[in-house]
Amino acid sequence: MNSLLEQFISEARDFLQGIGEKLMELENDPGNAEMMTELFRFVHTLKGNSGLFEFPEMTRVLHAGEDLMDAVRHGKVDFSKELADRLLDAMDYVGMLCDDIDANGGIDAKRAADSARLAESLRQLILSEAVAGASELPEEAAITGKDISEDKPIHFACISEAERMAAYRRACGGDTLHWLDYSPSEECFFQGDDPFFQARGTPDLMGVNITARQPFSALEELDAYRCILDFQILTSAPREELDEYFRYMPDQICIVPVSPLFLALPQGDPNGGPVYEDFVVEALGHLASGRMADLRQAARSLIELSSPELWLSSALRWLLLVIELEPQNRSALVMLIESLRDLKPPQWAKHQAHTSVNELSQTSQTRELASSVQESTISSEEVKALTELVAVQRKILLLPIEAGWQLGRLKAVSTTIAGCLRASGDLASLPGLAASTEMALDEATAKPLLEWLDTKYQGTQAPAAAEVKTVKAEIKIQAPTGLLEAQMSHPTVATRPTSDTEGESKFGRRSEDATTSPKSLKVDQAKIDRLMNLIGEMVVSKNALPYLAGRAENVFGVRELSREIKTQYAVINRIAEEMQDAIMQVRMMPVSFVFQRFPRLVRDTSRKLGKEVNLVLEGEETEADKNIIESLGDPLVHIVRNSLDHGFEQPEVRRALGKPVAGTLTIRASQESDRVVIEISDDGKGIDPVAIKQKAYEKGLIDEASMERLSDQEAVNLVFASGFSTMEVVSDLSGRGVGMDVVKTAVEKVNGTVVLESTKGKGTRIRLSLPLSMAVTNVMIVEFDGQNFGIPMDNVVETVRIPRSAIRTIKKSMATVLRGRIVPLKSINSLLALDAEPKANAEDELAVLVVRTGDESVGLLVDDFRETIDIILKPMAGVLAGLSAYSGSALMGDGSVLMILNVKEIL
Amino acid sequence: MKRILIVDDAATVRMYHRNILETAGYAVEEAVNGIEALEKSLQQSFDLFVVDINMPKLDGYGFLRELRSQDVAQAPAIMVSTEAESNDHIRAYAAGANVYMVKPVKPDQLLINVKLLIGEACL
């Protein structure tokens, strides 16, 4: 997988997490607009990212999600639980796709059906809720296009107005327009054709529309290898060129010459019908008396007052364009004006279309610009980009003046044009540009620059002016953020902006201070593990120094050197320990990493069960080693599910009992010395010890005698016994044949403990206690049968020496009494099947290491105790991994290997 | 070497643009939102900005408005957005962008625009 994709996946997961959280926060506070915006931004950005890759399945779902969020954001659709559910489902699905990509580097093709279904279900929400907004009918275009030309109905309206206007302009510049109907054969893919590419590659393409010949069949039945698309293409290329381009498919193409005015096809919202009689009369008056300037003025002012979506505005835009390009074509103008009477497109077919279009206006500025540029040596594609760029800069200059940043904008435009000039090799024009920029900056208006542009490229980019005016109103509506509003109210150019807004205060600082560097790093875990291993080796090799010191003194007799080695050892030891600590810190993660999934889990589960549960999370910032945190996940989920499923009563039961209807589930993390403690408590019905005993008896886990004898706490602990489940019916949530025993096993695997307390009718509290880190283990070295072994200090209760006489034999097993309690004794030699007797010391006392497993204490008879040390425990590998008596091995300072016993296993 | 500042909250997009631009031999800096972009642009000089619209804290419009309000040399800006339709491009121009491009931006298109804006002689 390439790094860009990796980056995408990891960022996508963050976004998905964020989306989930925001959705749930929104459920509690649906009116929070800020959160809504944030949520939209997440979905939007994620969609944008996915667009960089070929993941149509993902993009499709995200796009639908984005549209839905957009509708919600603008109040078209109400935020509801169902909506949140669907969105969460969709995000889960996207998460699954991420897993797919992670695992296989791509998305399985069979996911396409799911993604279409999900996207559809999201879109359904927009449609079903926004029924009222159905007035905008996109089909209108096709209808209005019907009656342009009686003999051959061409749907010109399927090409956008802007594209038609551009084509019209071309035509007035002397080009001929052609309309192509391109119907690729159904089998075209097998003949090696690429219709889309073919259509897009049409010379001088002005606009293209794609329609399906027949409705698409359902996705499952869709034959993707059959082409059922038709292309409608508008081009300004000469006939010969088109014939040449489509020469391999003459049977699939129909080329019709188009007279330019046919493109002048107003469309849009009729807005209740024609009411523009006054304007029509006035306009015709201007036209009759030849007052073109007045006519233009009248049309412009009406456009300014009208929404650009209106049919009227569309017609007026065409009117202005025709005035500009064919002012002498009176009949066409009359027809356009008249069309406002009934809002029906002008019947151009009836119009004598042999007009002087072609003789007219040879000086189209587009051609002018292109030719002036072509003198230099840049490619056609770059010419196109350059032309567009200059046009855009012109547009920008025509925008309404923004007091706050007008100067900056002018400068930027000037820099841009200068860049274009340099790029096209037109260095001679640079001084002229600089001069007019100077002037423009002095006057703080765009005029000098505009004039310069116009003389430079002779001609006008007229539609820009009109277009800009029409959108001006919309720009104002979009409210800027508070920060900007404040900025806008400062009419002067702010060199030192107000410093009371957050983030701006540092603007004054523009020295060469160190650039702000990112505050956190993402590091591959393998790298940290490597550091961990290295420091482990370092700790071990540093332990060789005391041996060396010993040898220097005892073997070589240089006491001085020995002392120096020891001093040096102390220094290295300190550094190594600090280093180890630092690396461990890197591995530390907050428990919020596992906690963050619970809001969703609790919400979904409790809703499924019809219960009301509030989740309270505490101490999320408590940190522990990554491995510990990760091992916490599954047990916690299990406990929470259990609690939701078995612990909480149904709301009506709770009400009857006088408890709050909504139950409370608290998950609290805290650090207690070197352990992290997680407490999960609920205020549900608790565990009934009697029922537990009964159940255990029925399952044959205990006999009748112990049923009587067991204390309540002992009974409650029975839930940890394997194969125990008190639920009568196994539900699909927590009862899958595994019970709390799984939790216990998982927790004990990382040296943790579980304690369960429960009060019937009040609730249950489960306490997990885990070590902060598993990396370093403190062990005690014991000696027996002439060998050294390590025993984890977590297991060690105490070391005692007891006289041989104090050992009693009860029914063949040994025991002793230690401070009034009977402690069973076991010889470690016999546990490990070593053929040796425990050795006593000179006073005939035996060394007893008291260890704890679970709740029991056992005394192990060993030969002697040694020191306790910190070791890096290496699990047994290969065949040795099967030896359960050992939990691993460790390397000692003198190079010997210490085997670490797994006390629980050998007892 | 010409210096370009990429402003985008999505790390993936930043990386994508960075790859394109660095391969073409430009020096690239990144900022994750408008505020950070402003800070950087006041500390260092750039020949071009490639700016996303939708970002937390301060969006692309806001960043450009602020930038254009400063009395410093003004480099051209390319605004990049996922919205093909709507009037975003006009808003972008009004805020101070010089080019508007729709995501996902095609590498050669981006490079052509960058070349023109920076004013390097074309091939």
Describe the protein in words:
The complex is a heterodimer of chains A (907) and B (123). The longest helix of chain A has 29 residues, at 559-587. Mean pLDDT of chain A is 77; it is low at 132-152, 352-377, 459-516 and 728-738. Chain A has seven domains: 3-133, Four Helix Bundle (Hemerythrin (Met), subunit A); 140-263, no CATH class; 277-342, no CATH class; 377-488; 525-586; 591-771, Histidine kinase-like ATPase, C-terminal domain (Heat Shock Protein 90); 776-906, CheA-289, Domain 4 (OB fold (Dihydrolipoamide Acetyltransferase, E2P)), CATH 2.40.50. Chain A has 907 residues and is an alpha+beta fold. In chain A, helix 7 (161-172) runs parallel beside helix 12 and helix 12 (311-325) packs antiparallel against helix 13. Chain A has a six-stranded mixed beta sheet with strand order 14-18-19-17-16-15. Chain A has a five-stranded mixed beta sheet with strand order 6-8-9-11-10. Chain A has a five-stranded mixed beta sheet with strand order 20-12-13-22-21. Chain A contains 33 helices and 22 strands. The two termini of chain A are 49 Å apart. By secondary structure, chain B is an alpha/beta fold. Chain B has a single domain (3-118), classed as Response regulator (Rossmann fold, 3-Layer(aba) Sandwich). Chain B has helices at residues 11-23, 34-43, 60-69, 88-95, 107-118, and strands at 3-7, 27-31, 48-52, 77-81, 99-102. Chain B has a five-stranded parallel beta sheet with strand order 2-1-3-4-5, with helices on both faces. In chain B, helix 2 (34-43) runs parallel beside helix 3 (60-69). In chain B, 65% of the residues are buried. The model of chain B has no long low-confidence stretch (mean pLDDT 83). At the A-B interface, helix 1, helix 2, helix 15, helix 16 and helix 19 of A face helix 1, helix 2, helix 3, helix 4 and helix 5 of B.
